[in-house]
Amino acid sequence: MRLLLTANGPGELLAWAAPLLARLEARGGFTTEIVLWPCRFASGREPELAATLPTVSSVVPPAEAIRGLLCRRPGASFAPTDVLLHIGGEPALSLLLARRLGCPAVAYHEPDGAIFRLFERSLPVAGPRAVGDLRTDAWAEVGASRERVDENRADGLVLALFPGSRALLVRHFLPFQLLVASTLSRSLPGLGVLVTLSDLVTAEAFLAALEGSPGILPGSRARLLGTPGPGGTLEVEGLPPVPIVRTGRALREADFGLAPVGSVTGEAAAAGLPLVALLPTHDPALVPIPGLAGQLRRLPFVGRGLHATAFRTFVARRPLVALPNLRAGRPLVPEVRGDFGTEEVVTALLGLAREIQDGAARARLANGLRSAMGPAGAAGRILAELEAVVA
Q1: Top CATH class, 141-373
Q2: Helices then strands (H, E): number in the chain?
Q3: What is residue 196's three-state secondary structure?
Q4: Is the pLDDT of residue 152 over 50?
Q5: pLDDT tens string 46-96
């Protein structure tokens, strides 16, 4: 089957496309072209990452995708395809592309919306007609292996820091998270810390963040020992050596985490890892707004003001923002919102640390998080829908 997959930002590629395409590779008989729609929150390295995913034969970057969509002969810009699968970006663009190429369109989406009824198949991530969350497919096995690691670990909790997958987030969140961890360690003797580094963050952006230059949030400086990536170590005042690791290792070895709102809150929940989710309102640039509202900042003259208004509306209408909390309809993990500082975040982490030090409470929380994200198997269900729509 020739699949055209449309996406945009890092969350869709890492959390959804990767586990789905791994399943298609295991099934066999698939070739995939990935079309990337414009995304203000993209890191710029998405085409490079997309090209490494299983079954991918070609990648169309955002600028080329828009030119190809608008040209007189779009078939000349995109590979021949049997079905289009939308997993991210503006759904209207994916619908228009499918119509112009003359192929059926399937949407795997969150949240729901009227536009998805225009697709041949609408596959919601959550809700009554849900096919499931691909994050669970990717990280359910990690939860089991993390529990096995826990049984044999020495004393002292381990905190995982997830600074984000964009240079802007890493620049502001990494120094702040290191300052929070250093402050937290005064109340939690023996605290271990891991820092994750996304494949979408360049070494240059990571090194710039370590300088701890004044930003939107307060922060600590760090000294790099070794490589600026997984395998390297950070030297931070008040902390033992801090290993730089990939997300999978952090989900296996940590007891709790700290992350900005986004896809990682769902990945951690699927693995049964509790964390504190941060929704900063210091600057709207730090928080992605889905849909066209997120593009308002690009407009000349009035863009920043319109985006700030859209951001305030986005925050006000969402009493819960971490993915497991949204799915459960109640706060399973703490959220810290607003123009917060170090003290508020340390307080939330201390409360979570005390909760998970009770083995029974920890098990209940981990099970609740996994339950909120739903059972694994989304990739198989999506595969069945793709095969049915082209039959």
Answers
A1: alpha beta
A2: 15, 14
A3: strand
A4: no
A5: 999 999 999 999 999 999 999 999 887 776 789 899 999 999 999 999 999
Domain boundaries, the chain: 2-132+376-390, 141-373
Query: What stretch of H or E contains 193?
Result: strand 192-196
Dihedrals phi, psi of 44, to nearest 5 degrees: 100, -15
Can you tell me the distance from the alpha carbon of 190 to that of 167, in angstroms, rounded to the nearest whole number? 30
CATH topology of domain 2-132+376-390: Rossmann fold (3.40.50)
2, with CB counted inside 10 A (0-12, 13-18, 19+), is: middle
One-letter amino acid of 239: L
Separation of alpha carbons 133 and 116, rounded Å = 17
Please report where in the chains the tokens 């590629």 appear, as a residue.
Answer: 13
pTM given for the model:
0.89
Alpha carbon distance 20, 381 (integer Å): 10
Contact 3, 54 (CB under 8 A): no
What distance in Å separates the CA atoms of residue 259 and residue 241, rounded to the nearest whole number? 20
Contact 132, 378 (CB under 8 A): yes
Residue type at position 248: G
Decide if pLDDT at 268 tops 60. yes
- 251/267 Cα distance (integer angstroms): 9
- pLDDT for 312 equals 74
| Alpha helices per DSSP H over 211-271 | 247-253, 263-270
> Chain centroid to CA 341: how far?
23
